[in-house]
Design a protein that fits this description.
Elements: H1 2-10, H2 13-56, H3 61-71, E1 87-92, E2 97-100, H4 111-119, E3 125-131, E4 137-145, E5 155-162, H5 164-216, H6 232-285, H7 291-319, E6 331-334, H8 335-349, E7 354-359, E8 363-366, H9 368-385, E9 391-397, E10 400-404, H10 437-447, E11 451-456, E12 462-467, E13 470-471
Helix pairs in contact: 2-5, 6-7, 8-9, 9-10
Amino acid sequence: MSRLVRRFRSLPLRSRLALLVAAAVAFAVAAVSVTCWFIVQGKLYDQVDNDLERMLQKPGQNIAIQQAVDNCTQTVQGGDSFRNSSYFEVVKADGEICVHSDSVGLVKVTGDDKDVIRNSPVGRGIVRNGTDEHGNALRVMTLRLASEQPDAPNAALILAVPLKNTQATLNDLALILLLVSGIGVLGSGAAGLAVARAGLRPVDKLTEAVEHVARTEDLDIRIPVEDDSEDEIARLSRSFNSMTSSLASSRDLQQQLIADAGHELRTPLTSLRTNIELLSRSEETGRPLPEADRKALLASVKAQMTELAALIGDLQELSRPDPGQHAGRTQIVAWQDIVESALRRARLRGPELTITADVQPWFVRAEPSALERAVVNILDNAVKFSPDGGTIEVRLADGTLTVRDHGPGIPAEELPHVFDRFWRSPSARALPGSGLGLSIVARTVQQAGGEVSLSPAEGGGTVATVRLPGAAVPPPEGPVPSTS
């Protein structure tokens, strides 16, 4: 059985569907055919039994039967009493046949016939299938009879007709049903195979598309789907199209990230190489550089190394998977503590600036280190673009953090690009930075279920707004302390 199951599972899907359809139709046809055959058999036997009843009810039959029972010594000839093809016998309780018709033969007496003589009331009997002395099939009626003579023995009348024509009709019917069933099963199998091919044609297209992607890595392939189709194949095709579209977009973003990262890394690496070559040439030629130039070169090398480290850190942050893949890192954190920690760092980086803060409690679910990095990046941007002696206003209330600076602001045509990776305003190309800070902010805020935006401030400058879902009070289990 297990081998059959394994062989069945190894067949193609359309072949399995065709076999299942054929098996289901075969079962249904077989059930209908067998039921039909038994119904026809019962009807034909009822007709034969009615013929036997009518033979007993012919005029003069009772007189002939009664004489046979009373005499139980005479042989009853066919004549007009019974048809020549009918069997007529009178049997005693011991099974002795004392009267019979000699035109067709004798009916074999069974134990059931003897039971009728001994136990059945007068006029009651049985109808059964039997045979004659030559083995021919008969329909037999056995009826208990009473004699008018007191000393006459108990006896039963056995009346039978051949079943040759009835059985021939049933055999022909069985052959016809078998042929019809066979044709029906073959037709259903062919129809099932055709339906399976038609129904699985979209699956074949999907398989070809997947094989094409695996072979060529071409993610631009799409499977056509009717807009109003809502079946499982259409849903699978739409899912495949969405998947390939997402993969293509992800690949494009990855290639763009690599290209942008290479471009951004080229500048500090070139500068580092130039400075190191100058220092090496000075050592090789034995002509030391002036102390001021040497210090400037070393300071430049240090600055470039710091820029490279920051750029690599930003790239690592952007390459991290989505929080759904490491949901264990997210916690309930006190956002006000994170903002306070970021403010301390911002004041160290811009000691000449005035940073005012109005921070109210707000608890959010996020990754503490990522959220603090995002807040630090926003404050760093404000510090970078604020003029000397300027003011930065920070406010956290009802889940909304606003950071307003009084710098040059962002032109309206540049606002849609501020959160793109490696994008930097033409006016800020000379300033330090990799162009990844706001991309990291947008990614972190979106992962925490919030939103971030930049907009021009009244009177000049820029307002950065971050909204995160949460509550003013911690949940019952309490907040997790933020890390500084």
